[in-house]
Amino acid sequence: MWLFAALIGVPLIEIVLFVQIGGAIGLWATIAIVLLTAAIGAAMLRAQGFAALGTLQNDLRRGRDPTPTLAHGALLLFAGALLLTPGFLTDAVGFALLTPQARSALIAWGGPKLAAQVVSSGPRAARRRGPIGDAPIEAEYREVDPHDADPHDPPPRR
Which of 14, 25, 96, 142 falls between 20 and 30 A from 58, CA-CA? Predict the structure, then answer.
């Protein structure tokens, strides 16, 4: 329901803003603002995206939890999509998401809600995928002496 409201509401708000702002400052100034915000947003997004990628690589190299960096990266991706969408509302939200403070606040607000949703749906998904009861799993095997096997040899054909 929220997605449907957003798909209808956001374009309507953008149309109203285009008409109001375009009427106040003129067509060409409105088009120039939209193009300028897209160019500035793309440059800022590129710089912050590379910074987030570097932070992610450092987190992984040092064995730290990359979840916060991945969350910031996902919000940067969303900000980029909003900045590429022509409009004043989407540009405002996109620029807001380019600030680390706004991303951190959104993660702090939405992170626990998302985690609760993932945890509550986890056991059901695991029950569907796992083996049923204590049913045996049939397999073929062959004993291999680790001293005789060359790790570069291909596995035997059957």
Answer: 96
